[in-house]
Amino acid sequence: MKYLVCYPNHDPECWIGVDAVDAEHAATSYAEQLCSRDCECYSTFAGGDDLLVKVVGGYPQRFEVMVESVPHFHARAK
After folding, report:
1. 1 Cβ neighbours under 8 A, 6+ residues apart
2. 77 in a domain, yes or no?
3. pLDDT for the residue 30
């Protein structure tokens, strides 16, 4: 399904289309897209930030989106 997502702290008038299963998935997908384009967005979502999600012609619903960091370790012989 197509959802519209807005990052009101960045641009309250800009709505971006996102294909997602539900509104929550649309919010997380959009945050992932932002972070993949700009690494500084990770710190923005580390403490949680709000995104608005709606279907075309519908009312927006506010979601708090947070990024969780899972460390990845690797080893190499010396």
Report:
1. 19, 20, 21, 22, 55
2. no
3. 94
Q: Cα–Cα distance between 42 and 3 in angstroms, integer?
A: 22
d(CA 4, CA 26): 8
Rounded CA separation 15/54 (Å): 9
- pLDDT, one tens digit per residue, over 9-29 is 888 899 999 999 999 999 999
Is 73 inside any structural domain? no
Counting the structural domains of the chain, the total is: 1
Is residue 42 a part of any domain in this protein?
A: yes
Range of the domain at 44: 2-65
Whether residue 75 is contained in a domain is answered as no
**Residue ranges in the chain modelled with pLDDT below 50:** none
In contact, 8 and 52? CB cutoff 8 Å? yes
